[in-house]
Amino acid sequence: QVQPAESGGGLVQAGGSLRLSCTPLRHIFNNYEMAWYRQTPGKEREVVAAIDWRSGRSHLVDSVKGRFTIFRDDAKDTMYLQMNSLKPEDTAIYYCNEFKGALDIAELTNWGQGTQVTGSS
After folding, report:
1. Are 70 and 19 spatial neighbours (Cβ–Cβ below 8 Å)?
2. How far apart (Å, rounded) are the C-alpha atoms in residues 34 and 71?
3. Which of 49, 92, 104, 113 could serve as 70's disulfide partner, Cβ 3.0–4.6 Å?
4. DSSP alpha helix (H) spans, the chain
5. Mind listing the pLDDT tens digit for each residue in 10-19?
6. Where are the beta strands (DSSP E) in 40-120?
7. Whether pLDDT at 70 is above 90
């Protein structure tokens, strides 16, 4: 089974930027709604940002609004998460997957390895 591959994570100082990438997506999931998720030890995975692949319309959780941007390149079947003004509390493993609703994350399967983002103070 083909899994999505996340990349672009790293260690950055507070206020720094990273761009995460995830591919392939449309090739794997029969869903036009895609999202970035993050998880920290001891906590459940949470959605960070979601995008409608057809319209490009996006939604972000309040904690990242104004700092993160989600967008996609249809030709490359790649989704991105531009992360600016990173904070220590953004530290997590970031994953991509289809989006079926913020309350249905536990039902999702076919997770990739994720990419570690660490924001240092």
Report:
1. no
2. 10
3. 49
4. none
5. 999 999 999 9
6. 46-52, 58-60, 68-73, 78-83, 92-98, 115-120
7. yes
